[in-house]
Amino acid sequence: xxxxxxxxxxxxxxxxxxxxxxxxxxxxxxxxxxxxxxxxxxxxxxxxxxxxxxxxxxxxxxxxxxxxxxxxxxxxxxxxxxxxxxxxxxxxxxxxxxxxxxxxxxxxxxxxxxxxxxxxxxxxxxxxxxxxxxxxxxxxxxxxxxxxxxxxxxxxxxxxxxxxxxxxxxxxxxxxxxxxxxxxxxxxxxxxxxxxxxxxxxxxxxxxxxxxxxxxxxxxxxxxxxxxxxxxxxxxxxxxxxxxxxxxxxxxxxxxxxxxxxxxxxxxxxxxxxxxxxxxxxxxxxxxxxxxxxxxxxxxxxxxxxxxxxxxxxxxxxxxxxxxxxxxxxxxxxxxxxxxxxxxxxxxxxxxxxxxxxxxxxxxxxxxxxxxxxxxxxxxxxxxxxxxxxxxxxxxxxxxxxxxxxxxxxxxxxxxxxxxxxxxxxxxxxxxxxxxxxxxxxxxxxxxxxxxxxxxxxxxxxxxxxxxxxxxxxxxxxxxxxxxxxxxxxxxxxxxxxxxxx
Length: 502
Description:
Helices cover 45% and strands 12% of the residues. The protein is globular, with a radius of gyration of 25 Å. It has helices at residues 3-8, 18-38, 50-57, 70-83, 103-115, 126-143, 157-172, 177-180, 199-206, 227-239, 262-272, 309-312, 327-334, 363-396, 426-447, 474-501; strands at 150-154, 188-193, 214-217, 243-250, 275-279, 304-307, 320-324, 402-408, 411-416, 453-457, 460-466. Helix 6 packs parallel to helix 14.
């Protein structure tokens, strides 16, 4: 049989008939609906060591030579994931800044994967490219950023922030940096508060600045960048012959949710000729609230803004977004087309606006959720999350064993302190409390009742609850202090008993 005969009526083992696909899809959606319905009754995360997970998976199995029934495979995959996952969709997941995923987003990812557009070039993804452009505009409108900005969806906050810094470099470098590289002139300096996320170190490393090009500016007692310290550092750097490139403001720091003095930073950047970038990956969407602070309402003053729909728009991972006020400056940072390469009605080719050529259809899940919920719906959900964090902070005051620290946006920080250590006790007591609260966090995680994350506040190890979860209720919030006190007393007793045995 020749090759033409073999492919005349080709059967491929990876394809499914329409009937098979419908049956598998219905069964999987039923399973997922059951998962959503049962989240509250499940532990937030399983108590299982990596070895146990690998054993359940059969991690040492070789690649199978022959295929298997897809129905059995999907059922097995669902069981593995349902039994051995951390559920950030659980009502009591308050760790890091990962939101509970919107169900319409899960369905959107199925639809996007089935159509499978490559949203790098318009010709490869005509409708998907236009949906992404509309989504970017709607995100900008939601937070008060200029709607005619340039922008695109990214994998998350790191990539979105990277794009802002690369746009700054291309726009403000006093030499042809895209052709000559970083050796073409003076050292560029990027200014950011000491509370800024580690994305900035990655950006400085990856893009040739070097981490020593970051000027870490101290914060005030509210964990906000100290403007006077910034001004002094810029003067010093200029006197030493360096080139101040950009100042980075935070619209909601990871540790405590602090918002830098964005309006003042914008004015300073404008006066000093610095690019003003805002990391709003977490807190930027709070600018949609009419009652948001003046600084959050100043996002429109930023030259570039990073913001994450997979945080406070509740989109499933991955979905970040980079916005640049001047769309042409964004294009200038990435495009290699000559300036005359324009058409009367120019198509959107996203490979001209970011790091990727091949790009998945991230925008669909955000676009559908924005249409399902609308501005008013998002304002209400974000407002509720903030109110729940504030309620937690107020509720903590009723527990003498719990010491409160901060409450900004939807993040509250606190720690457990045994009665005999409430009056202080010096460095030894501080070290003990740090270790104790770290152990409390580990115990809560293993118990599966809730999920928190840590924050270091001036050398103090704090427990951190971040509410970006539309499933969380007041009842969930009010249960947390009792869990921490119960676990804290057990952890403290165990540590003291262990000390006595030595």
